[in-house]
Amino acid sequence: MPATLIPNPELSSIPVARTRTFVFDDRPSTTTNDPVTTSSPARAARAPNGHRDGQRAGAQCGFGRVSAAPRFGTRETWTLKNGRDNWDHPIHIHFEEGQILARTDNRGNPVPISPAEQGRKDVYRLHPGGSVTITMQFRDWGGMFMEHCHNTMHEDNAMLLRWEIDDSGDPVP
Fold first, then answer.
1. Dist CA 173 CA 171 (whole Å)
2. From CA 124, how far away is CA 73, in angstroms rounded?
3. Rounded distance between C-alpha atoms, residue 57 and residue 35, angstroms
């Protein structure tokens, strides 16, 4: 068996178009007052630097909020942070694979990336209080997608957010 089954794509020649941070915790805030699509979720995903004006995004259960809108063909770096010290969050980003660049523990100290995490991924385990920084090229599909926690009770309570590949590169308020 070869040491490398399928090599990771070489992305270093593609400039990083944007860096975003998403925080997963239990401090929700909703983004719409629509009674059908908005609830008072127990879990939340926030995008503190993902908006044009730096506003904090709340639980992304509202129909009118897109938290990230990368341009087709670009590369971005996303930091996923666990805002609490008491839960792991397996975060699934739909329809794009990424590569882990860095990991930190709950004190912000670097953690070595294990061999099991050095390949392309679409689910990233956020340890309590830790973070993972990934890079992705938005190459194959356009349209609307989501990222969410795979802990069922978190996902069911709107620990998710919407993102969309389009031509503007800006989130929709």
1. 6
2. 22
3. 18
Rounded Cα distance between 163 and 142, Å, is 11
The residues that bridge with 160 in the sheet, in sequence order, are 148
Give how far Cα 142 sits from Cα of 20, 113, 149, Å.
Answer: 19, 30, 22
Helix (H, G, I), strand (E, B) or coil at 128: coil
Length of the chain: 173
Over residues 96-138, the pLDDT tens digits come to 899 999 999 999 999 999 988 998 999 999 999 999 999 999 9
CB proximity list for 122: less than 8 A, separation 6 or greater: 92, 93, 94, 96, 97, 98
> For residues 171 and 68, what is the distance between their CA atoms, to the nearest angstrom?
5
| Contact (Cβ atoms closer than 8 angstroms) between residue 43 and residue 149 | yes
pLDDT tens profile 40-50: 444 456 555 44
CA 150 to chain centre: 12
Sign, CA torsion 131/137/140/145: positive
Per-state percent for the chain, helix, strand, coil, to nearest 5: 5, 35, 60
Residue 172: DSSP 8-state: B
